[in-house]
Amino acid sequence: MDKSNINTYFHSLFPIPEPVVEKITATFCPFTLEKNTVLLDKDTISTKTYFLEQGYVRSYILNEDNEEVTTNIYTAPCFVNDFLSFFKKQPTKEVYQTLTDCTFWETNFDNVQANFHNITEFREFSRLLFVINYYKLNDRLIEMASQKAETRYLNLLKVQPHIFQHVPLKIIASYLGITDSSLSRIRKEISKM
Amino acid sequence: MDKSNINTYFHSLFPIPEPVVEKITATFCPFTLEKNTVLLDKDTISTKTYFLEQGYVRSYILNEDNEEVTTNIYTAPCFVNDFLSFFKKQPTKEVYQTLTDCTFWETNFDNVQANFHNITEFREFSRLLFVINYYKLNDRLIEMASQKAETRYLNLLKVQPHIFQHVPLKIIASYLGITDSSLSRIRKEISKM
DNA sequence: GTAATTTCTTGTCATTTATCAAGTGACTAA
DNA sequence: TTAGTCACTTGATAAATGACAAGAAATTAC
């Protein structure tokens, strides 16, 4: 039960005294999932917060044609949460699935709630987590609206090169908002240069 | 100083006893801005939280070619905030500008902070605001990645028809991630049917 | 280790959207 | 009132990306 990775993650976002972090993570339980396992299925209500310690996870929706559209790719270490489902207790629209073997820590809503209302530093941390996630999403939206696929691909390659070692291209393509054929052609073009 | 609109907005998101809402909004000050005025400029640090009581506001960035890309359109009543700038005290990347004459209420960081740590209901409210904003952004991202411009236009027309009465088409086009010429053609196509 | 399945690439062609330029109508300022 | 600006439309053409199908390469399952 080595929680050093979670604890480090907390410290990295917000300065928190060691004993406080330990109190926050006291209720976190570890578990592992194999590659291609569903962590949280659609139309269910998320009752847990997940900390992804090792591995890759994606979320995806099924569109009108029942095709999977990847909405997010999560890279450890990070929290994986369906905010709407977890905090508003609504069914998820998205499926959360492991892309590699993964190790997680989880805790439930009541624990999060107790920490949120009782521990000043956890409140700040939580808010910061929202701010950062919102900001990342906003950046991706701007990218999607204002840059062409090739630019988005090159940017992902620059910022998260390791993703390409662990995630199939068809999933990356759908995350970039294009088809796998288009991504293949873009890669071919770039390799020529 | 009639705060009934803010108070109603608080109640609509989260059940809060009247005296608590009044305590929360006690520090809010009203002000008005004319059409096409900058509320929050880029490269500045946001020191206020704004509640938009009446009117329309947009945020936009300038891309590499110095063209304005509209990132969000805010419709009263709602909070208008640059989360990253306000909470992490970083310079904004976006410009926030009124699209019509607007009335606002504002309060500063210290007040938000005091309420956040002292008032349980405000904590819940704040978190809910983040959850909802995150969810909206996520929905837009999915739309942008998986649906064509015409579908996105029709959806906006269905969900927020009033925007079309108050916001120039060129701004709506850029919000939809397309050029104004394309939007014009899409509208022409649809009107034929 | 071989068959089955999945992923990736590539070809052809169609669709969507952008670019650029010109023109119209509406609003604005002196 | 008149010139100037801005929003919108439209035309011609080009660029970006998608759809579908076939085959190659990689991975998985037994």
Rg estimate of chain A, integer Å: 18 Å
Percent helix among the residues of chain A? 40-55%
- Main sheet of chain A, how many strands, which sense, barrel? 4 strands, antiparallel
In whole angstroms, the N-to-C terminal distance of chain A is 49 Å
Largest interface: A-B, 31 and 31 residues
CATH class of the domain at 4-119 in chain A: Mainly Beta
What's the helix-strand series of chain A? HHEEEEEEHEEHHHHHH
Shape of chain A: globular
> What amount of the residues of chain A lies in strands?
15-25%
Summing up helix and strand content along with how strands pair, one would put the structural category of chain A as alpha+beta
The strand count of chain A comes to 8
The stretches of 5 or more residues of chain A where confidence is low (pLDDT under 50) are: none
Here the CATH topology of the domain at 4-119 in chain A equals: Jelly Rolls
Could you state the CATH homologous superfamily of the domain at 4-119 in chain A? Answer: Jelly Rolls
Average pLDDT of chain A: 94
- State the strand order across the main sheet of chain A: 1-8-3-6
Q: Which architecture of the domain at 4-119 in chain A per CATH?
A: Sandwich
Number of helices of chain A: 9
